[in-house]
Amino acid sequence: MRTTPQQREGRLLLAPLVAFLLLFLSFPALVDIVYALSDVSFQTMRAPELVGFRNFGAVLVDPEFWSACWFSLRFGALTAVIECLLGLGLAIFLSPVVSRHGWTTAVLMLPMMVAPSMVGLMYRLVLHEFAGPLPYYLTLWFGTSPAFLDASHAFWTLVVVEVLQWTPFAFLLFHVAYISIPSEIREAAAMDKARPWQILWRIELPMMKATIAIALGIRFIDGFRVFDNVFALTGAGAGGSTMSLSIYIYQSFFKGGQIGQAVAASALLFLASLVVLYGGAMLKSHLQKRRLAA
After folding, report:
1. DSSP alpha helices (H): ranges in the chain?
2. Is the overall model pTM greater than 0.90, yes or no?
3. What does the pLDDT look like over 156-178, one tens digit per residue?
């Protein structure tokens, strides 16, 4: 079958992108597969010994791996829900203000502009038990202060820090979805004497379902694979109390020298993220079909 000039032009334009993907993604992915199936250390990286799925078995029977999974799962789910609830509330109640004063959006986006590792270092200084200003003033005013970074409080401290930084992301998604709802629908509901909470519950939220599902999926994945601010703020924590999957992979690779197990754990993390993404895409498609059918 002969190709048309348009097809040849399209293939020519796609060639750089295909070459980039093959060069920068395919080769690292192939190396990761080899390392995940090999007994390899820093001394044997150039000549790995294939051992099949032994690394995956070692990871799956490691209690620290499951502890890291449990931390990442709790952290990702909790932060995603809180961020989306706060972001949705801000998008709805601040919509008139943001519509009149567009510069307020830039102010609300400021926490996202700071690198997560810098956020972790900043809060580490602020919350330090002996040198931090917040524990100092709490002790000065109330006579006592919780140890924000010890094993019993570190999880909730990390949740608060994550929520403070990434709620603006959820707010931005929900604000765009909220203002895209046609005003005629709200006006028609108001003429039918619908109360504001009825308009919100029966019209606005159903029309924002796809955005809510996307925001929940993105924030869960981001929280599930969290590394920067947790590592900078508490590391793995006392007794591994704040060890996420990403920190587990980092410690297995750089501190333990177990490269094969670390790559196998990263492959499992990638597959888990892929499942969540696929589930979110299927949910979005289902909601769109229902919306079109209605």
Report:
1. 5-21, 27-36, 54-60, 63-93, 95-100, 103-108, 116-127, 133-142, 154-179, 183-191, 196-199, 205-207, 209-224, 228-233, 245-250, 259-293
2. no
3. 999 999 999 999 999 989 988 88
